[in-house]
Amino acid sequence: MNDSSILTICVPTFNRAEHLQASLKSILTQTERNFTLYVLDDASTDSTAEVVSSFNDARIRYVRHEKNRGLYGNMNYALNLPLAKYLAIYHDHDLYCPTIVSKSLTALMKNPCASYVHTGLVTIADDGEVTSQDVRKFAHVTSGPSFMKVIAGSWSSPVMAATVMMRSDIFKHVGGFDDKFGLNCDADLWWELGKYGSVLYLREPLAKIRERTAGMATAKFRWATVEKGTLMREKHVLGSYRNNAFAWLRYIVGREYRLLVFQLRALIKENPAVVSEGWEVILRKGGTTTRVLVGAFQTFSVLRFLLKFVSFAWSQQVVFRRAWRRRMHAFAKDKFS
Question: What is the pLDDT of residues 287-310, one digit of tens each?
Fold first, then answer.
């Protein structure tokens, strides 16, 4: 290991041995090699340790927790490490293009007032097939306050956490991820970092992100996550827009829409306990219109039947469109190869 490295990469992991090897390989074969790589094992019970030990690379540092700290507790363990000037927390089941480290480092070095950089990406299926591309139209450099407003105005994070590289001193200053916001707290970190510098974006896909599927911690539906996300957006709107009545109205409309959609989704796909939990959240956080609409769907079986029929029809056309795109992709590949 080169002790003069200016970058620390952390890979938090838990029972992902089947994907970890490919992820680590994609990091260790970067064109920029001057970094230290910490694998943070959150008390895995699979072959994670064996996967890590299979790499004969002096840049690797393996840390195993005796007790499970949870997703963001494990990420926040980076606060206890001797971090270099820059920090990237890469994911244990995603793949990284060979130049993401060098290009992210170069961007931060050329923009000393920036707090972090993020990049475009593609999503891949479990077999490695590219399923979509996500490259945003953000400027290369956006002021911190301006990007904080982008985050405050969005109900899903405009930053793909798996691609971020940040300044370690700012990460430590804000205290890492605030897990009181649950799975939404990565967006809160990007919002907080925006207070201390501009935000950089590389408009090219430099990471391959595996599609989140049922069973993954980040794909499971939880009403607690919905409620915590609502509280976080409220914090961001108040912090970014102050007394802007239009921004507050937009937040209220977005909140009611999300509560309504999530409860209708629960009526279709979840068990009665989840539906009951959702109703309690709506009673605490929802407005009168949302309560009336949800109450009607929960009371009248004919409305639930129509809801399930529309949902089924929609899902079928989505499946058909995906199959058609794959068929056309295969045809074009055969035709022009």
Answer: 999 999 988 888 878 777 787 777
Per residue in 208-243, is it b (16+ CB within 10 Å) or e — as a string? bbbeeeeeeeeeeeebebbbbbbebbbebbeebbee
Q: Is 322 contained in some domain?
A: no
- Rounded to whole angstroms, the Cα distance separating 114 from 108 reads 6
DSSP 3-state assignment of 193?
A: helix
| 22 found inside a domain | yes
Closest CA relative to residue 92, chosen from 225, 217, 221, 220: 217
Q: What would you report as the CA-atom Rg of the chain, rounded to the nearest whole angstrom?
A: 22
Burial string for 268-303 (b: 16+ CB within 10 Å, else e) reads bebeeebbebbbebbeebbeeebbebbeebbeeeee
In the chain, what's the furthest Cα-to-Cα distance? 67
The number of distinct structural domains making up the chain is 2
Q: Does the residue 319 lie in any domain?
A: no
Boundaries of domain holding 272: 223-299
pLDDT at 215: 47
- Dihedral class, residue 142 (left if φ above 0, else alpha if ψ from -120 to 50, else beta): beta
**CA–CA separation, 107 vs 47, rounded Å?**
36
Interval 184-211: pLDDT, tens: 899 999 999 999 999 999 999 999 999 8
